[in-house]
Amino acid sequence: MMKRLLTLLVALMLAGPVLAQNGPLRLRITDGVIEPITFAVPSFEAESPQAQQVAADLSRLVVQDLAGTGLFREVPATAFISQVSSFAQPVAFADWRAINAQALIVGAVTVSGNQLVVRFRLYDVFSGQELGEGLQFAGTTAGWRRMGHKVADAVYSRITGEGGYFDSRVVFVSEAGPKDNRQKRLAVMDYDGANLQFLTDSSTIVLAPRFSPNGDRVLYTSYESGFPRINVLNVANVGRQQLTTAPGEMAFSPRFSRDGRQVTYSLSNGGNTDIYRTDLSSGQHVRLTSAPSIETAPSLSPDGSQIVFESDRSGSQQLYIMSANGGEARRISFGEGRYGTPVWSPRGDLVAFTKQNAGRFHIGVMRTDGSEERLLTSSFLDEGPTWSPNGRVIMFSRETQGAGGTSSMYSVDISGRNLKAVPIQGGASDPSWGPLQP
Amino acid sequence: MKMMTRATVVLLALATAACTNPDRFGGGAGGAGGAGGGVGGVGSASDPASPAYFNQTIGDRVLFAVDTSTITPEGKAILDGQAQWLLTNADYRSVIEGHADEQGTREYNIALGFRRANAVREYLVSRGVPAGRLEVTSYGKERPIEVCSQESCYAKNRRAVTVLSFSAITS
To answer: Which of A58, A217, A362, B41 gets the most CB atoms within 10 Å of its CB?
Structure first.
């Protein structure tokens, strides 16, 4: 859909004297940043009359993406001393320094027919240098939001040195109706709640969709037979097929392997639940756990060598790690309360989980050896974390208490800051964050 | 003629199931335990051969303590009645649906519901009901019948419900 015409050079290319700041413009997220980087986005230049609206909308979207991270703060246009009327004109750095904008993003938009071209440049105002090279994205006018997200991803990436996450989608369960007759259907949206699209109707309960690594398919649990079974859904044509399950067996809690060819999931037979793996092309099953306890919610490490899962073999729900081929497991959760729904981070260093303790639910993270446990949220019922593609943000479900309780999706930084609701209409649960789009 | 009457009863049962059984929901297979479709509260609760008698007089469900699948003494009394009824009314099959309260994660609650449904199935089999007539499923916390967020509601939601269906009209 879109191609990069110029090469993106990732950050750290500033040389020469540094003026008002200590070193080049750079935000280390790991430092536990409190003070956001300030940035200005003059409305992108419309290079043709029909580009005016989209130029204005697209610049606002870049602002929303960046400001929405909590790591950046917009300097509003009302504070601007100089205007940027042309993408090509030299930047009056003194005017931007005077209003304390550390970063300046300028852009230009061309529309011809339904074709849209966006160009942008990022400047480090205090060093008076361009940060990275100018970039150009081309696509259709209908896909303008994706191009805005791409610009914001490039800016985020150049300033933080990390991958972005704005041009990504989330598959989830859209909910309607009261608690005792809740209608559920699969839906997909942009990470910011835009472009909502339904993938199933609400004729049967559907649960816990999981994106494939490249976002082309979704695994989910469906009750269309009256028994939980796993379906594979093709996102492009909404075609679906069921994972073969023997009569009397129930399958749920699926996740793709990193190559998208295998599914790791829970299978229940005779009241006992264990973890299995099935090869999607051959249909061959491998049993990975064999215990009378509940083993569920498997999630693979990024290198595919290990599985983190939950088990109540100790008497209560706790987290364990074993080899991807099964065998001995080591317990990693030892705090008070119960731990479930572990999800390995895309960087491999952390496991996100749901913790239940003293009548409250929390989303938390810990290192893969169980150390440095950190609770990020607390509410009546938080559950089901999913990682942003860059491993910096977690999205999850929050259900409110009581007869009128409803479910919504929230996101929070792994620092525990910037907790906010995903703005979509209606109830929503079980988010699965897909990859950064190509 | 007798067969005809029974077929009519089944149709009626399917038509009313959504209203009479709190585990049933309208709009398709959303909660309709699968295979046979429940027969709800058909018949009179005073007719010992009717599903209504099974559901209301004997009791179609047993309740569980938090995070357990152990059948309580009260539960055993109900299941003894269910077993007796199923042995007497051999044309019926059942799907045992396990459920959990909302105080738990989604996947764990599905697995817990299976444990509960399976505990009921094993008990009924131990009382002589042929295993082949009993299927199990679990809805986890997806289908609460009580909606308050208090123990009084949770206690009713932690349940396993024996949902009757005809095995086959010709059998």
So the answer is: A58
